[in-house]
Design goal:
Radius of gyration: 22 Å
Number of helices: 8
Number of domains: 2
Helix content: 25-40%
Order of helices and strands: EHHEEEHEHEEHHEEHH
CATH topology of the largest domain: Alpha/beta knot
Bound molecules: S-adenosylmethionine
C-alpha cells in the first residue's frame, strides 16, 4: 500500500513511522509512506496555509488553494483515495479499516486550527473522524488510521491469525489472554488453557469473548445479533 500524508508538521510522523510494526511494514515493502509539507504549496512568500475566517470569530482556517495544489501534485504521480481528517467525518472503526485496507493508495489531508475552508471537501473522497473529541491536528488521526489499516495487509503481522482473531473482527471483543506464570500470587490461569485440548480451548475462548462483549460492549452484541440474524444468542 502507498500512503501520502499532507501536513504542515511533517516531523510529527518520524518516530511513529520509524518504530515497531509500521517500521517493519515499510522495511518489508508492504507499506510506503510519503509525507508532503503543505507549506511547500503555499502561494505567497510567507508560505501561508491558513487565513482568518470570513464572518469573524476565533481561530484560523486552512486555505483551499495550497491543499488543492498539493493534491494535484501528489496525484500526478499516484492517484489515491483522498481522506479529509475532521471531527465531522464518518466515525473510524474496524469495518472502515477493512474497507480502506482494500485500497492501493490512500491520501490523507491533516487539518489544524479551526479546520478547513469548506471548499476543500470538493477534492475529497471521504471525510473521517477518529472519534467524538477534538485534537489539535489531523496528524495523530492519520497515523492512527494508517496503523489500523496497515496491520490488516497480508504479510505485515508476524502471524496472519493475529489480525483475524482480534477485537471487532467478528463483531465481538477479544477473549482474555494469559501467559506464564500459571499461578500469580494465587491468581490461576483457567484450567482449560493448560489442558492442551484445542477444541475445548476454542469453545472457552468464544464463550469468554461473548461474555466480555455482553458485559463491556452490549452495543456490539446487539449489532452482531442483527447482522447474523440472531446466531449470537445473548446468554
Ligand atoms: N473546529 C473544528 C471542529 O470543531 O470540528 C476542530 C478543528 S481541530 C482543532 C483541527 C484539525 O484536527 C481538524 O481540522 C482535523 O484535521 C483534526 N482533528 C481534530 N479532531 C479530530 C477527530 N476527532 N478526527 C479526525 N480529525 C480530527
Amino acid at each position: 500500500m502507498h500512503v501520502d500524508i499532507i501536513s504542515i508538521f511533517p516531523s510529527m510522523f518520524d518516530s511513529v513511522l520509524n518504530s515497531s510494526i509500521l517500521k517493519r511494514a515499510v522495511e518489508k515493502g508492504k507499506l510506503e509512506v510519503k509525507i508532503h509539507n503543505l507549506r511547500d504549496f503555499a502561494e505567497d512568500k510567507h508560505n501561508t496555509t491558513d487565513d482568518a475566517p470570513y464572518g469573524g470569530g476565533a481561530g484560523m482556517v486552512m486555505k483551499v488553494e495550497p491543499i488543492a495544489k498539493c493534491l494535484r501534485n501528489v496525484e500526478k504521480k499516484k492517484k489515491g483515495f483522498k481522506i479529509l481528517l475532521t471531527p465531522a467525518g464518518k466515525k473510524f472503526d474496524q469495518a472502515l479499516a477493512k474497507k480502506l485496507a482494500k485500497k492501493k493508495n490512500l491520501i490523507f489531508v491533516c487539518g489544524h486550527y479551526e479546520g478547513f475552508d469548506e471548499r476543500v471537501k470538493d477534492y475529497i473522497d471521504e471525510e473521517i473522524s477518529i472519534g467524538d473529541y477534538v485534537l489539535t491536528g489531523g496528524e495523530i488521526p492519520a497515523l492512527l488510521i494508517v496503523d489500523a489499516v496497515m496491520r490488516l495487509l497480508p504479510g505485515v503481522l508476524g502471524n496472519e491469525e493475529s489480525a483475524k482473531n482480534e477485537s471487532f473482527m467478528d463483531g465481538l471483543l477479544d477473549y482474555p489472554h494469559y501467559t506464564r506464570p500459571a499461578d500469580y500470587k494465587g491468581k490461576k490461569v483457567p484450567e482449560v488453557l493448560l489442558s492442551g485440548n484445542h477444541e475445548k480451548i476454542a469453545k472457552w475462548r468464544s464463550e469468554e469473548a461473548l461474555k466480555l462483549t455482553k458485559e463491556k460492549r452490549p452495543d456490539l452484541l446487539a449489532k452482531a445479533n442483527k447482522l447474523s440474524k440472531g446466531v449470537y444468542i445473548c446468554p
